[in-house]
Records
---
Amino acid sequence: MNAAELDALLRQFLTDHTLSDAEKKTLRGWVDKHVSTDQHRAVARNRVFDTARGAVADPQAARVIDFLEDVLKVLLPMAAAGGPAPDEAFFSPGEACLQRIVARLTNARSTVDICVFTVTDDRISSAILAAHKRGVAVRVITDNDKAFDPGSDVPRFQAAGVPLKVDHTPFHMHHKFALFDRTRLLNGSYNWTRSAAESNEENVVDTGDPRVVAAFQNEFDQLWAKL
């Protein structure tokens, strides 16, 4: 999906604060060409609200936009797809796992809880830092054996002020899961590294099953309190 092209269109359409029939036709054409999955729809929707927020100087107006976005997510979850995003599985080698992780980080609006053994893929780390920067409450749990290895991005998180806890026990904190807005879970064998995307046979499952999400959220919260 060409997100930069969408951003340019939105900024152009926003100059007169109206969406003309011609602009609607152009936007529909862009959607038909670029939007084919729930992930694409969610990213496009977030781009629209981010563009609107960037166009207002009044903090109160920006808060109204935040409110509208959150309300629409409750009332019309993935409306274009006909319902909530389904559970899906992704595999590597290849970028399917990476793209889903980055998409979930990009789409998160309130909380992200990350519990992974090692994080060295700068593409994922940049998405984590971007979420933190836009005000998402990000928390990271990792393991001491990998936290400060060459290439680890944990020091970047610390420098940016991302809340972080490291397991210093003699054993490994070997989980590889993340929770988004307390409603979606990514879990699997996939470590957040380039070798996982480029070489290893790995997997990620994306689920919104409330019971599964609640169980992993409880595990994260217990680990956070313990470490």
Note: The two ends are 40 Å apart (CA to CA).
---
Amino acid sequence: MENASGTEPKFKTKTSAGAEPALMELFLDGIRDIYWAENHLVKALPKMIQAATSGKLSAAIEEHLTQTAGHVKRLEQVFELLGEKAIAKKCDAMEGISKEAEGIVESTDAGTATRDVGIILASQKVEHYEIASYGGLAQLAVTLGLDDVAEILNTTLAEEKKADALLTEIAENEVNYKAADEA
């Protein structure tokens, strides 16, 4: 289909005639996946808070738990904007990362900075997965002409990046040094 200038549009979007249904379905699949992941984190993060020794680390995870509940609500907004039911699709990646985090907690001694280092490493794996997911989905939303959805996804993406930076700061300025001094 030609556009006003008489050439084929570079991308077919939701607003252009003949939008690519397979691309939209892939996008929806990604939204359902991250929706499952965020709901899973709402249940998993309290375990990490409880296992952490560092007050700064506990506070950072607590803050991110509050944000994560907001991410779930934002994703529900996205479903609404898309005219879709908010349905989660099991996220195998987040399930695996969560199991790994539980393994780290189980294999380290309670009350140690070493455990906190492990919690930070596991938490950053979560953040990086979320950053990759939200970044890709936000760009795909733009491609599909879903600018309002992209804006919501980019808001969450910015929060995920801040959470990752805070974890790095806690590791670099406190926890890693304490762990290095443990017997």
Note: Residues 1-5, 7-18 have pLDDT under 50 and may be disordered.
